[in-house]
Amino acid sequence: MPGRAQHYVMRDRFIQSYFDRVYTPAYDVTTARFAGYRGLLERSLSRLTSGEAERILCVGVGTGNEVEHLLREDAQASIVGVDLSQNALKTARRRASQMGREIETLVMDARSLIFPDASFDKVVCMHVMDFVDRPELATQEIFRVLREGG
Fold this sequence. Notes:
The structure is a single chain. With 150 residues, this protein is α/β, with parallel strands linked by helices. 46% of the residues lie in helices and 12% in strands. It has five helices and four strands. Helix 2 packs across helix 3. The mean pLDDT is 84.
């Protein structure tokens, strides 16, 4: 019988595989097309944009729906996207590229961000916590990497 640590490793691998093979390919043709979701995305992100050059972290960037909006509204923004799914990150990079922009993307767990403290002006995290085991850890990490006043 696997130990607790091994259980979490296996669980995380399963989740990563699920996102790469099932969720990510279906996301843009299902959830992302719902008017309610699109409206929530637009309303939420419109509160973040300022038009100034800022460093923005998208936790659980997925296929880049948030990136598209942020780049349209904040052309000078420097965006870093993290996600467990390499397939999602590839799609997010392609979306940014189609807009003539580049974003940095990294495979990363929201509960353990590798960035230094206070390294982002803004952090976006939408439709993620319902998939995270121990979301309080992800929340702590988000506040740790967000600069004061961000």
